[in-house]
Structure formats: C-alpha cells, structure tokens
Amino acid sequence: MNKKTDVLIIGAGLSGLMAAAKAAESGKKVTVAAKGMGSLSLSSGCIDLWGYDIDDPQQVCPNPLAQIARLGEVNREHPYTKVADVLEESLRCFQGITARYGCDYRDNGGANWLLPTAVGTFRPSFLAPPSMAVKDLDKAKRIVIAGYEELKDFYPEVMAANLARNGNLPESVNIAVVKLRCAWKKLYATTLAHRLEQAEGIKEAVDQIKPHVVSGTVVLFPPVLGERLDIDVAARLSAALGAPVYEVANIPPALPGQRLQQLLLKHLRNMGVDVIIGCTFTGAKTEGNRCLQVTAEGAGKTFTFAAQTYVLATGAFVGGGLDSRIGAVREMIFDLPVCTLEKWASGEFLSMNGHGFNRFGIAVNDRLQPLDEAGQVCLENVRITGANLAGANGPIEKCGNGVALASGYKAGKLAGEVPS
Amino acid sequence: MVTERVQVVVIGGGATGTGILRDLAMRGLSALLVEQGDLAHGTSSRFHGLLHSGGRYAVKDKEAAKECIEENLLLRRLAPDCIEPTGGLFAQLPSDDPAYAETWVKACAEAGIETKELDVGALIQKYPVLSPKITRAYSVPDAAVDGFRMLWSNVNSARRYGAKMANYSKLTAIHQTNGRISGVELTNTLTGEARQIECDMVINAAGAWAGEVTTLAGLDVSIIKDKGTLLAFNHRLTNQVVNRLRPPGDADIFVPHGTITLLGTTSVSVDDPNSFKTTDKEVQDMLAVGREMMPRIDDYRIIRAFAGVRPLYQANKGAGGRAVTRNFALIDHEQRDGLTGLISIVGGKFTTFRLMAEKTVDLAAKKLGNNTPCRTKEEPLSAPQSAEMLERGKKVFGVPGAKKAAERLGEGFAKVVAEAEQDRAKRRMFCECEMVSAAEIEYVADDDDSKTLSDIRRRTRMGMGTCQGIFCSYRTLGAMSDHKQFTVTHREFLAEFLQNRWRGVRAVLWGQQLREAQLSSEIFCTLFGMERMK
C-alpha cells in the first residue's frame, strides 16, 4: 500500500505526538505511524524540564527556563541548545492543548514543582496534571497515604518512611498510612483505575479513608485514579473526602502518562491527523541527501510512505529507535550515524554521572536535521526529535519529557513551514 | 564472654563444608560450620552448575572421571530436588582432532561412563541452535545441579542431627596449645562482635580461601586460585548440557538451568580469592568460542556475566590452569606439620563434594575415636514434598509458582502455603520471573539465617531472573518494613541490590539487555530520583 502525506511522523511518544499537533496546525496533511503506543505510558505523566542546578547538581533548580538558557555556555551539544528558541512557546502550546481537553497541565509560577513519588522521594518537575500537582505539602497537618492491600506495586509504609527523610516537611506533620481493601480479587493498576471510575469504587475508598481525615489533611494515592481522561477521579475523591487528593509517580504502568497519550491522540484525531499503530519500519529510500520514501510492515501488508518531511521520533533503546550489538549502535530506519561515547556505562548503577548510553543519539543542527561525523546534513528533509537526539543525560538531568516536547514542537513547526 | 564448645569446627560454607557438617552430624559428632558470608557466597554458587558425568575428565584424569560418575549417580538418587537430569552431549566440530573421539569413548568406557553415539542430523533437527557443522556427537549422563539448594539441603539435614551453622562469621584466629588445636575465634562480619569457640578439631574446607585459613595456624597450603568467567543466557538454548568433544578448554560447556543457560568458562590464575570481576575481553573471547558450537548465539539475550574462583591444589608446584588435576587432596596437618587437630580438604569439584566429605570425616572420626560408619551414601538429603501439600500450593500460587516454591523451600513450603491460604495479600508474586510470592519472602525474612536482603535474594532467587530485579527489588521494600533486623535504609537496600545486579549486567550491555538497562535507569533515576535519594 502506498501512502502520500505532507508530514510523516514515525513514533507515537511525546515528541512524535507534539510534532504532529504542531504540523497539523499549519494545514499540512499529517500522518503518525508507529510500531507501538510509545513510551509515554512508562513516564510519570509530568513534563520534567530541568531538575537540578547546573553548578550544584544536588540542589533543585529554582528556575528551569533560566538555567536552560545558560546551557549553551556549558554544554553546547545538549539538545536544548537546538530548541531553546521555541522552548517557551512549545510549553504554552502544550498547556493550551491540555487545557482544551480539561486536563490543564499546571506550572508552579516558573519554579519546579517538587512532587512526591511512591518511594517517598521528591521529583522536580515543571508541568504536572491537576491530579499530580501537589500543593503545599509542607503546610499539611496530616498526610494520609492510601494504598491497596493487594496492589502489588505500591507500598504506603515505604513511602511514609522516606517522605520525612527526603522532603522539607516540618516535624509536626503527621503521616498516616491507610491500607484499603477492595472487593475485587485481582488488583492491577488498570483494573483498580476502572473500579475507581465507578461510584461504588469511590464509595469503597472514601468509607475507608474518611475516618483518617482531619482538617488540614492531604491524601496521596498511587497513580490509579482513573483510566479515562473525562472522568476526574481525583476531583471526585477530593469532594467526597473534603480534602485534596493527589496521585504520585510510580513504576509502570503509570496511568497519568497513558492519560496524556490519550489526550494528545484525541487532539490529533480532531485535527484530522491520520494515526497508524502497528507499523514496523524496515528502511528508507534516499537520493542524494533527501529521503524519498520509507517502508513499513504491518497487519500483513507492506506500506510505503512518501512525504515532504519525515520526523524521526522512534526513541532510543527502550523505544526501539536505536539498537546495539557489541561495540556498535544502529539507528534502525535511516541508518543515520549515532554518536556514542567510549564509555557506555558507569561502574555504579546510581552514579551521579549517569550512563554513557543514555547520551547516545543522533547529532543535529539547529533545524533538527541529522548530521554526519563531518557535521554535514545527511538527510535534509528528515528531522530528529526526543530520545533520538544525542547529548541529553535525561535520568540525571530530569529533562526527558521537556526535550521531547520542545523538539517535537520544533520539528512540527519546521515541517509546517516547508512549501508544498 | 561466653565460650562455646563443639568437637569440630568446619571452616567454609560451600559444598564441601556443608557436606562435611552433615556427615559429622550423622555420625554423632558435634559440629559448627563457619562461613564468612552467606552460604555458597564463594565458588559453590559461582560455577556452571554442571553435575559432571566425568566425560570431561575421562581422557586426562581417569580417577576424577570415575569419582564423578559414581557421585553423579548417587546424588541423583539422594537429592532429586536439587538436580535436573538433563543428560548431556559431547559434540565434535571439523576443527577438532577426529582421533580424539575414539580415545574419549574408550576412556569413558573404562571409567564407567555410559556413552552413546547420536545421529547428528536428528540432533541438529532437535536443537537447531547447534552448529550444522557438527561431525560426531555422543550422549552422556551429565545433569544440572542447583548449588545453592544442595548446600541448604545439607545444612538443614545436618541441623536435624544437631549441627550448628554460623554465617557472616569470619575466622579471625586459630588457637593451639602444645601443638594441638584448642579453639577458634570468629568475628561477626555484620556487627564486628567476636566469639570464642573451644574445639578439638578444625576442618579447613575454605576452598579458594583455604590458604588464608592455614596461615592463621602458621602453616602453608598453596592453593592455585583459578578464575572462571560465565555468561548467563536468558533462554534455554538446549535441553541438554552441551560439551565440546576435545581436550577441555575455555567456553566449551553450555548448561541449561531452569529457563536460562550458562556458558562457561575461562581459566585465569588470580592472586585474590575474591576476584569476581569479569572483563570485556573475557566475555568476547568466550562468545567467540561459544559461537563455534552455536553459531547464532548473538541472537540470544545475555543477562549477565559473572566469575568464580576454583581452588586447585597441586602438591608439587609448577603446573597451572587446565593442567592441574581436578582431584582433591586431604591434608592431615598432624602428619605433615605436627599440628594435631587440623585437617585441610583442598581441590576437587562440586560433583564430588559428598565423597570429599566422606573421606574427610573418615579421617576426622578416626582421630576423635568415633567408629560410626558414613551413611551419606544411603540417606536422602530431604523428604519429598507430599502430593496433598503440592495441591494446596497450586491453589494459592498456581501450578508453576507452587512447583518452584516447593523445590526451593523444602520443609518450609507447608508453612508458606498455610500463610498464603490465610492472607490473600501474601499470594502476590513479588518476583514474576522466578515466581516468588510475598509469603515466601516473608518466610525467608523471618528466618534467623537471613541477615541481609541479599540473603533473601539468594534463598528465593528473587531478582535473579530476566528483569534482574527492576520490579521485585522495589516490591521487597514492602516486605522489609515489617522486619526490623534489616537495619539498612531503603536507599541503601535498593542501591546495594541494584548494584549487585549491575555488576553482572554491565559486562553484557548490548541488545535487549541494554534496553533493560535504559529502562532501569528511567525507573530508578528519572521516576524515583534514587541517585539523590536520602
């Protein structure tokens, strides 16, 4: 099957979906094709921009935008330096889209939020959905951590033990653990989320939590407050309990990320974007430094896609955009040169330097076009976004979703400017 | 300070030491086993887990080959829950000397090892992973053995006969009076506390550390420390052990274990018995040899690389590595050095641990005036699980979960099943790769022998499967909260646990394993900020 489109986005993660949203605004015919549903569901669901101070990486960064503006001085290869010009407008665009679908991602007045996680650490993040944007935890009189007995991946006692140790909470705050029972036999995050969308699920939880709520209580939940975007479980619980209820970041499956993905997909549908999931890309046909078409297999068919602009948003190793053998790394569709480092990994898993492999990726110019070793553009109608980009140390810098959002936006914007 | 008294102190919680403890106890001698770390933290858990048929040694070391086949057949009967009778095969490639096959078949026959020539075409059809170039192949009675389980079975059986065990206890002094052993000093490696034990005899079964032990008595036993590196594949490549039909060399044995396969090993002389580090070159060299037997080996995922140190003994120094005999030696220090009450048992291999124990305890018992004969050839190590208990287990843990738990837990299984029947939350599988339930983790955590969280990992296998602990390490935090003996913080626990896994993973960081590593850093750093956790 041959498909023609103006803009082909390969990959359905945050950067791909943002690229599609922005390119669609310009009136282009946009297609998103991806192998799977992208790794947004593995992420927290928040937009982390820049977590810690450049000069003192133990200190939480008070003003991420100002720090990123300085990044060019200290790390010229960082992907943020290629997208700094659109960073703020990309955030506004994202907030505009999410607000339109009733899930307005909130900033903290230009500062990082410090949001609690399931292990009781606090993660710096720039934008958070309402269900996660915990306000004034340090002013709470009582923190109730509610967890379900049979839910495998949330241990309220663990969170309680570490909250006080890791946060700047006053000694007077009272941290209580409530272990909830659920009438259902098998409890997974998704089944629980579904139950909490029903009135009886809410009632079941409220009946058990209510006795622990006093004035000044904040209730923290695992990230299971509903599967669907249009049912605001956190708000329903808050109203019934008379206390604010938030969900905290936890290991996958994490529903806030899935909800964000749904939101963006819904937006793309409304914008007339064609989305094809289940497409495994097998290669590209190029001529000189232009890509003519890419091929894919899916549903027993072979597809060829021809487009003006191709956006490579396939992610790194987890996403499947990059693969490796001993001593060699490959980009899977265009066979673009991948920047690697001699040292792939640190000796300590939790090293503050992070691991070399997280920085691997494709070098680009300011227009997000891929570069070869000599700094020449390899394919001028291909743009690279998100985790495909070289030079970010996401797990340590806390910038993964921020880089994805801004680079996706920029790629979409550039694609929209290409004359038909 | 309280001074305790036993007749015999055994140093070294490996296969030999635990085998000796059991034998001593069964003959009515009071004994204490001393281990510096957890049971099997040394060589007995850092090998390829092959219960040798003896085929590997048949040509060069007939004595060793005979011992292997005899012990192999015995242990299958005595400890069926520790052994998977996979069978093995020896296969020859065009680059191997074709004349070796005849020599080998003859030598096997002389050692009592049953071999049968196989139809190569049918063999390759059965295991397409094998090289189509194989010229000849023979079956042998090799098997896979779970070292850790075997050791615990020994200790549990010994305890039923009144023996004692002290793990995390390092031998810090050997006391002697007038040329006679009078006792030992132990230091708890977790608390630093010292403990004095009076005894008539010390048996040194410390394996690669045996030289360190005799040094404390002012004597010299020279152990050749020979490091072997192993690779763990996340697949069962074949259902049988695969050996190369040629004189023993590096990377020529594949052993299936549960769902994985181990490829081993190298042979490098080292100075330190704690040399567990693997190098990139060792890994790549091994793969190069492994590829000859299984050409598509690179398509399979490798989950980790690790190393162990073989304690080899050569009475007259000079030889090294593969030239040194795999046979064992019993050293009577009374005879050799004039120190009464010290015996060293050195060299040997896992497969013959029971025999080594028997010979050692024969000598020890004679010296202590005990005439009870050895019974470890007759008495099984543990009673089989009852069918009724297995049925109950299946209801709470499912069929594969119950089977695995029953094998791991032995007598503890009944208790774990009962707990899970009572409390639904305890049926949760904390480790999905190895099917370890919350109830099992709680049970092991409650045990006095579990002093660190790594002990829980070793005894349950939690975190040792495909995901290498990404999810279950976090889940175990939940189990920790109720067990105050684990004094570490959650940060320390996770850091230690993840680092232990990382050591092995880092050596094989490509393909699917690199993907997993990136996912781990996403979870523990991006999501949880563990690198900055307090």
Overall mean pLDDT of chain A stands at: 95
Provide the CATH superfamily of the largest domain in chain A. FAD/NAD(P)-binding domain
Number of helices of chain A: 11
Outline the low-pLDDT stretches of chain B: none
Shape of chain B: globular
Q: What is the fold-level CATH name, i.e. the topology of the largest domain in chain A?
A: FAD/NAD(P)-binding domain
Instruction: Output the CATH class name of the largest domain in chain A.
Output: Alpha Beta
Indicate the radius of gyration of chain B in whole angstroms: 23 Å
Strand content of chain B: 15-25%
Regarding CATH, which class of the largest domain in chain B?
A: Alpha Beta
Mean pLDDT of chain B: 92
Largest sheet of chain B: 9 strands, mixed
Largest sheet of chain A: 7 strands, mixed
Low-confidence stretches of chain A: none
Structure at a glance:
With about 425 residues, chain A is α/β, with parallel strands linked by helices.
Chart the SSEs and their pairings.
The complex is a heterodimer of chains A (420) and B (534).
Chain A lengths: L1 E9 L3 H12 L4 E5 L29 H11 L5 H4 L3 H14 L12 E4 L5 E4 L16 E7 L7 H11 L7 E7 L8 H8 L2 H11 L7 E5 L11 H9 L3 E3 L7 H16 L3 E4 L2 E8 L2 E9 L2 E12 L9 E4 L2 E4 L50 E3 L9 H4 L2 H18 L3
Parallel strand pairs in A: 1-2, 1-12, 2-9, 5-6, 5-7, 7-8, 12-15
Antiparallel strand pairs in A: 3-4, 10-11, 11-12, 13-14
Helix pairs in contact in A: 1-9, 1-11, 4-11, 7-8
Chain B lengths: L2 E3 L2 E4 L3 H12 L4 E4 L15 E2 L10 H17 L4 E2 L3 E5 L6 H13 L4 E2 L2 H7 L9 E5 L2 E3 L1 H14 L3 E3 L2 E9 L2 E9 L5 E5 L2 E4 L5 H7 L6 E11 L7 E4 L8 E5 L2 E5 L3 E2 L10 H14 L8 E12 L14 E5 H5 L4 E6 L5 H15 L19 H11 L1 H11 L2 H11 L6 E3 L4 E2 H9 L6 H8 L11 H9 L9 H16 L5 H17 L7
Parallel strand pairs in B: 1-13, 2-3, 2-14, 3-10, 6-16, 14-22
Antiparallel strand pairs in B: 4-9, 5-9, 6-8, 7-8, 11-12, 12-13, 15-18, 15-19, 15-20, 16-17, 17-18, 21-22, 23-24
